[in-house]
Amino acid sequence: MQKKDAITIKDIAKALNLSVATVSRSLKDSYQISEQTKKKVRAYAEANHYMPNLMAQSLKNRKTRSIGLMICSIPNNFLAEVISGIESAANSKNYHVIITQSHESFEREMQNLDFLTSRAVDGFLVSIATETQNFSHFEEILSQNLPIVFFDRIPDIDNIHQVVSDNHEGAYNATKHLLQNGFTKIGHITSSVNLSITKERLEGYYKALEEFNIPLNEMYIKYCHHGGMLLEEVEKAISELLAAQIPVDAILTASDRITTATLKSLQERGLKIPDDIGIVGFTNFSFPELFNPPLTTVNQSAFEMGKTAAELLITQIESKRPLKAFEKIILPAVLTVRKTSMKAKQNTVSS
To answer: ∠ at Cα 255 (251, 260), nearest 5°?
Structure first.
């Protein structure tokens, strides 16, 4: 069967007795064209399998209609949802997403940035690696007025666009909930001390302890410098928390990987949850109620984070002028209570 040649904007214009300019503007959803005309053009284009010539467009506009995405690792429930949100927004605007992974390495992150720059992507979506403390590679990109939106893990750079979770409130509510349910010796296993999300969650954790007049025990805070990617990091943290002079009676975990490893380790040790030890996890597992017992979670708006970040980036890319106002968008982190944190309330404390 002979393959039919792809139709062009000129073909659509001729078939509908419209100008090429009208068809082009209709396909770009221009406000200058009536909704009736745009619907007619779109319907004909879809029925006849019209595909835009992206290469020709990029040569004309000096755009590749591609977005470079820099994340730590794809095997991560939270980031999988973020990517879905990014692709949803990108696809709706006919952009392609090129995904790179740092695996928490600063060197790999710089290599990925060089690779994406060499591919002439139109903009960057970035969640920094745990090892990253020097941000000069991003500052150089920003100095060239190339569009960047940072999400989740944010570098300490002025005047940047960012989309984040309300990490402070999420950790505060989780810690407060544990305290209200009788847990008073709460450990916190978190990511690298360098990361913005680590600092924000620690502040929420501190605030809840202070409100309930619980002295801060620095020995109850454990850092996993690779974000739980290395299981031995999590195992070491749990061993130290349980071997403390006064062992913890609950743990707040700060990521999907840390939460999974913690649950596994506690159960392998024969500890009963929540009778022996309670747990609340920052995690975006699809079905936390299927854990035994069902897991109390702080759920981040991951899909919305990706979608919002991509939309903000595309707005920058398509803007006729450099954007002077920088946005920080904070999305909710929602505590959902299940059995892993529901200790009998006879020993509850009050603020």
So the answer is: 70
Give the C-alpha separation, 179 to 172, whole Å.
Answer: 11
Give the number of other CB atoms < 10 A from CB of residue 131.
19
Nearest to 306 by CA among 105, 126, 182: 126
Tracing tokens 């897991």 back to the chain, one arrives at 295
- The CA distance from 53 to 233, in Å, is 49
Q: What is the DSSP string of 235-293?
A: HHHHHHHHTSSS--SEEEE-SHHHHHHHHHHHHHTT--TTTT-EEEEE---S-GGGSSS
- For residue range 30-83, list pLDDT tens digits in order: 777 899 999 999 999 988 888 775 545 544 556 789 999 999 988 788 999 999
| Cβ neighbours for 187, distance < 8 A, ≥ 6 positions apart | 220, 221, 222, 241, 248, 250, 251, 252
> Domain 167-300+335-347 belongs to what architecture?
3-Layer(aba) Sandwich (3.40)
Q: Do 60-164+302-331 and 167-300+335-347 agree at the fold level?
A: yes
pTM (2 decimals)? 0.79
CA–CA gap between residue 83 and residue 89 (Å, rounded): 10
Bond prior to 274 in cis (omega within 30° of 0): yes
pLDDT per residue as tens digits for the range 119-142: 889 999 999 999 999 998 999 888
Q: Are 86 and 92 in contact (CB under 8 A)?
A: no
Cβ atoms of 163 and 149 within 8 Å: the answer is: yes
Burial of 159 (0-12, 13-18, 19+ CB in 10 A): exposed
- CATH T-level topology, domain 60-164+302-331: Rossmann fold (3.40.50)
Cis peptide before 293 (omega within 30 of 0): yes
Rg (CA), the chain: 25
The structural domains of the chain, with segments of one domain joined by +, span 9-50, 60-164+302-331, 167-300+335-347
